[in-house]
Design a protein that fits this description.
16 strands; 2,3-Dihydroxybiphenyl 1,2-Dioxygenase, domain 1; 2 domains; 4 helices; alpha+beta; single chain; globular; 8-stranded mixed β-sheet; about 40% strand
Length: about 230
């Protein structure tokens, strides 16, 4: 059973304002609007959920919240997850327009959505498209080993503070969590045709070298723009 990284979700006070920003600057499109005002959007490759933060919701903070995988065998996915993490919380998601059928919490407290039916994306790889994510981990090696074995990801590289995996289309770096607070999804990396020109449209941007630029959306979520990502 092979898994594909297919989903990132964040919480925001104003999903429509955020979508307008992503449509104008990065070509995202709307797939579905929920009755609660949350928006399910895509770059063509992943499902990017802009969830409306409201009272009594699952929101922990404004910003990146969780991520998810598409699998071809849910029973096998559950078996692998619960064998590797016997104490994990594995539960069914409400089928109220959401795209994932199940969710579990990994060893870092990250909520991870798992879907067998898929996240309704077209698989379009034409830039701009998400090709990379950075995710905080208390123990990057232990965390990467779990995801590599569970979803049959390929290891691309490792150092003292991070391990990079790939599903063949999107790479995932598990980065050593520094300081207090919860481990979080830290940034998304997007492939764009002209990183410098794309970055100049953002009010907050800086060069990271190697024709890669770090920018922030209007909620302060970090994005990295590059012409190519190793996947």
């Amino acid at each position: 059973m092979k898994g594909a990284f297919k989903h990132v979700a964040l919480f925001t006070e104003d999903p429509d304002r955020l979508l307008d920003f992503y449509q104008k600057n990065l070509g995202f499109s709307l797939i579905h609007r929920s009755p609660s005002g949350s928006l399910y959007t895509t770059d063509g490759l992943i499902m990017y959920a802009m969830l409306k933060k409201r009272e009594q919701s699952e929101a922990r903070w404004i910003g990146y919240d969780h991520f998810g995988f598409h699998v071809d065998n849910m029973a096998e996915a559950k078996k692998r997850v619960t064998e590797a993490l016997p104490d994990c919380q594995w539960g069914q998601r409400p089928q109220d327009g959401r795209y994932a059928e199940y969710r579990f919490l990994d060893m870092n407290g990250h909520p991870v959505d798992v879907s067998e039916q898929g996240f309704r994306t077209s698989g379009d790889l034409e830039p701009p498209t998400v090709r990379h994510v950075d995710i905080g981990a208390a123990d990057p090696v232990k965390t990467a080993t779990f995801y590599r074995n569970t979803f049959e990801l390929k290891e691309l590289s490792r150092s003292d503070n991070d391990v990079v995996l790939s599903d063949g289309t999107v790479s995932v770096t598990f980065v050593k969590h520094q300081g207090g607070g919860s481990c979080q999804l830290q940034s998304m990396g997007m492939e764009v045709k002209d990183p410098e020109a794309a970055a100049s449209a953002f009010p907050h941007h800086k060069s990271l070298g190697n024709d890669t630029f770090e920018v922030q959306d209007i909620d302060g979520n970090k994005l990295q723009l590059a012409k190519h990502w190793q996947v």
